[in-house]
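Reviewers of the previous submission asked for a worked example of the structure-prediction workflow described in the proposal, so we include one complete record here. The input consisted solely of the amino acid sequence. No template or homolog information was supplied to the procedure at any stage.
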Amino acid sequence: MSLEAPDRLEDAPWAGPDPEFSVLGARPVRHAAVPTLSLDLQISEPTGRSVYMIALRVSLMLEPARRSYDETTRARLEELFGAPERWATTTRSMLWCQLDVIVPAFIGQTTVSVPVSVSGDHELAAAKYLYALPDGFAPMGLHFNGTVYYRGADGAVQMVLVPWSTSIDFRLPVSAWRETIEAYYPGTGWLGLPVATIERLRALKLARGLATTDAALNQLLEEAGG
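From that input alone, the workflow returned the following structure tokens.
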């Protein structure tokens, strides 16, 4: 009688599904309620077990240390990371967002669309970083956890956790992000300002007979020599 362990994970009756993840691409979502970028997430289950559902939690991280930057881009990023000589310690991972995704039943492999809300607010670190990139890609890390529901050998629904160590890398095309922003905010960016500052700008606009807040800001910048 052999006491050796099974050669394959699926040979063990107690072994649950072991999902693997990859991102096939990214594309803008047209006509959503808010600017949205969709990631095509492929989930594979190599043991061949029937997956009833996956309640998935995805953390999207920007990984600025994983690409190089030209001189112009480095100047744009100084506000975010400081002087380039400090970037070895300041270009740390940045959380973009956390998402809850329901993956429906499948066997073997499936693909789901993961909607990512995109902000045009220049005051947010993630948006500030993406605005600064002229082209190429934005390095990302996707970290997964959650629960896989599957039918066991007896037909009963069972559960197994997605390990916290499950992570993948993805190069988000900057063009996909820019196309999303431009589709919703053509030629426009956003700044978050305190209500008191907005009221002062509105009062100045009225006092000077200007048509828009943009005109008021441009006039102030010209007076300041900007």
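Confidence is low (pLDDT under 50) at residues 1-14. We consider this example representative of the routine output the project will generate in years two and three.
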